[in-house]
Structure formats: C-alpha cells, structure tokens
Here is the input.
Amino acid sequence: MNLLKMNSSIMSFCIYGLGSTGKSAAKYLKSKNFHNVKIWDDKKKTKTEKKFFLKYLDSCDYIILSPGINLKKSKLKNKLLRNKHKIITDLDLFYLFNPNIRSIVITGTNGKSTTCKILEHVLKKNRINVKLGGNIGKPILNLKLNNRPIVIIEASSFQLAYSKYVKPNYAAILNITRDHLDWHGTMKEYINSKLKIFSNQKSDDFAFLNNQNLIKKFKKNNYVSKLKYVKTKKYKRLQKKIKNSYLNSKANKDNMNYIYEICEIFKIKNENVVKSLKNFKGLNHRHEIFYKNLNKTFINDSKATSFQSSKFALESNKNIFWIVGGLPKLGDKININEVKRNIVKAYIIGKNTKFFKKFFNRNIKHEVSSTMKNAVISIFKDIKKIKHKNLNILLSPASASYDQYENFEERGNQFKKIVLKYARKNF
Here is the structure.
C-alpha cells in the first residue's frame, strides 16, 4: 500500500493521544494534504467532543494510536477493540509514505537507545548519510529525509504491538528479558511484538539475532530475510582496541557485536569502526559517568527501570554504593546473589521500600533513605570512611520513576544536581 496514491480529500484518520507522537502524526498528515483528521486525547473534558470522536472511529479509514496508550486499559477500549483492524502507528505512516526508504530498526529490552546512537555515530563518521528517530526521542515523522538517508529507528514494544507495515532492510532484536508485562499481559505477547520487525522483510533484507529461542521462533515463523547470528565473542579482539571507557560495560560490549555485524554489511573496515568509536560519548542517564574525584566515580544510570537493566551496571562495577528504588515492574524479581559481591551498600528510595527490602534481606547491607537527597547525604558520610579503594556511587533504580518523578530524566538530573552540590562541600 502506498498512501501517496490515495485521495487525500477522501481518506480519513483518527489520532488517539496528543503526546509528541500524536502531534507529529497530525502535523505530518496536514503536510501531506490530508484534512479529514480527527484528534482525541483523554485530557479533553467535554462529552460532546468525546461523543463526536467515538462516532468518527467507526467511519474513519485509519486510527493512529500513540504508543503510551494501552488498548486493553484505554477509556475508549470497547470502541477501539471493535475497530482494531484499523489501528496503525506513526511507524506505519512512515513506511506507507516512504516505501523505498532504506532503514535499520533496532529493538530489545535493554540498550536500544545507546546502540542506535553508537550506530548513528559510526555511520556518520564513515560518511554515510543517516538519520535517527523513533522511541529515542525524536518522533520518526519529524525527520527531514534530505538526500535519501538511511534511517535508524529505535522501536519500542509499545509501538510495534499495533504496527502493521514496518518493513526495515536491517532489523535487530538486541535482547529479551521480562519487561512491560503490565502493558502486554504475557511474555508471549511481548516477544511477538518484537518479532514484528521481521514479518514484512524481503529475502534480500537482513535479520540480526543472538538468542537461540528467538532464532527458533524466527525459523518457525518462516521469515524470509537473511538471518545473521550475532556471536558475542566474535569481536573480542576488536573490543580490546577501543579506548573508550563508556563502552566497557557488559551491556555495551554485548550490543557492540550488532554494530560490528551491521558495519560489516555496509563494508566499513574494522579499523575504521574502532577509530570512530574512540570519541563516542554516551547518552545521558545510561551509565553516565558525570563526576569523578580521586578514587570516587559517580554514575547516573537512571534509565535502568528494571533489575535486568540495573544488573548490567552492577556487573560492570565494583565497590558500589547503590541507590535503588521506585515503582517496580510487574513480575520483576531481584536476584542479588549474582552481583552482591560488587555492592558495598544499597540505599532504598521511593514509596515501595518493602519490595526491595524483601530481596535484600540479609544478602547485602542496606538502609531506607526514602528520598534522593537522604540517599546522597548518607553516601557522602559512608564514603568518607573509605580512603584507599576505588569507589563507585551508582544511581541505577531498577524500577520506574513515577512514584516520585515525572520521568527517569528528572530523576537522573536531580541525582546529578544533589551530588554536585554536596561534592563542593565535601571534597
């Protein structure tokens, strides 16, 4: 299907959700001269507007659903379920309007944003015209596609769950662990949403996987793209040549293998990949080393919203003073045994302290700090007593931020602000 060939005066759209994605879809359709577009957001109050929108859902051609909306819990659930066959996403619009675009779609539970950013960095350094968008921050429909770039898309499971026309030339699932089950309902549904990135690929497209269970599902579903098995040890020799401390974490080392595989297909030489990575700077709130003082390193890993995400940071550092806590994900469990040797003490913040205390019990030393400020003050008191070891002060909450903060960015920024304030007084 190609919407460019459709009659814009006849075809109609409903947009549900007016976050950044919904706004970008409305603006995009207007730029393409589609005027039969009706918009609804749950924040609208009038019954008349809602009644009109509900009626329009039955007659419109497409319903564009913002990724934050859970169909099963939506206020318009019944009407949306009856029209489920019409639901698409901003990713679908992108592919429907740009059928010939070359694209790389990256998804997975952890490391999507960093991997996308590293890939963008390497391709740009090697003079490849590339654009980055999607779940990473800039809505995909806001990208300017001058000179036919290769588009890198970070795709969340929320976006993919309702997508129908996503069709990347290169598609990668980095990893799969339990996450967002409160949204998807089951692990099966969560995995199926990720696998959608392969369903519309052609035989000359590429699929990148390193998980045996996913590879089995790939073959069982008879996807036709070329399967590239990403072996995590394949590029160990190259990794030793990269002089960039940000890329030394286990998570980044694992995901770097995808970068190497994709670069190989783009015929970028290994030495050029290594050279490109030397000056790569990591993303904020993802194992972000923002302050050092002698033997003390302060790390902002606020993006870690599940224990599996935090586990990467806990495995990659030693002598950790760990700030943890927030709103736990449904079904998340904390297996502290594998990383407890690296933790000196944990400081629990947020409103769900009992959840974390249950897992810590007698396994690691911990205290209930409740607030970020209390946790930082306690840490500064504790680290004063230790002089000769390299210490890591780590915010990696292993949970969502919504019990105390608007989002993980606000949480991470407050941590950095408080640390820098007390560092001036103590060092």
